[in-house]
Amino acid sequence: QVHLVEVGGGLVQAGVSLRLSCAASGDSFRNSAMAWFRQAPGKEREFIAAISYNGDSFYVPDPVKGRFTISRNNAKNVGYLLMEDLKPEDTAVYYCGVANKPYVPIWGSPHEYIYWGQGTRVSVSS
């Protein structure tokens, strides 16, 4: 079992950076792939980034590539999402998800991740 808590969201102006953290309890985190998704009001959950259990493989889709970076520190049981040059369209609730295996075949499928946090809200003003 893995319990996840996302922190680091807030209300910011366009152009700034934020780093979200996903703190995990339990020993499974360090052996499991993780990902970040977001959901804006009225929209479906959107895949943002994913990383393998030890960080040797990761994927960031084109819509946020070059601005968003995923990383993890297994010694601290924490995953991170660094978001740079934030835009109003990045406004959403951001969720971290953790799989029950070290790699997932489809990075962007929410069904690959079985543990989820409650989300942290990011609001970007223009």
Instruction: Please count the beta strands (DSSP E, at least 2 residues each).
Output: 11
How does the helix and strand content classify structurally? Answer: mainly beta
Q: Number of DSSP helices?
A: 0
Mean pLDDT: 96
Unreliable parts? none
Strand content: over 45%
State the end-to-end CA separation: 40 Å
The shape is: globular
SSE layout:
Blueprint lengths: L2 E5 L2 E4 L4 E8 L8 E6 L6 E6 L6 E2 L8 E6 L4 E6 L8 E7 L16 E2 L3 E6 L1
Parallel strand pairs: 2-11
Antiparallel strand pairs: 1-3, 3-8, 4-5, 4-9, 5-6, 7-8, 9-10, 9-11
Short description, anyone?
The protein has 126 residues and is an all-beta fold. The chain contains no helices and eleven strands.
Characterize the structure shown.
The protein is mainly β and 126 residues long. Helix content is 0%, strand content 46%. Strands 2, 4, 5, 6, 9, 10 and 11 form a seven-stranded mixed β-sheet that branches. A four-stranded antiparallel β-sheet has the order 1-3-8-7, with no helix packed on it.
Give the tags:
126 residues, mainly beta, globular, seven-stranded mixed beta sheet, four-stranded antiparallel beta sheet, 0% helix
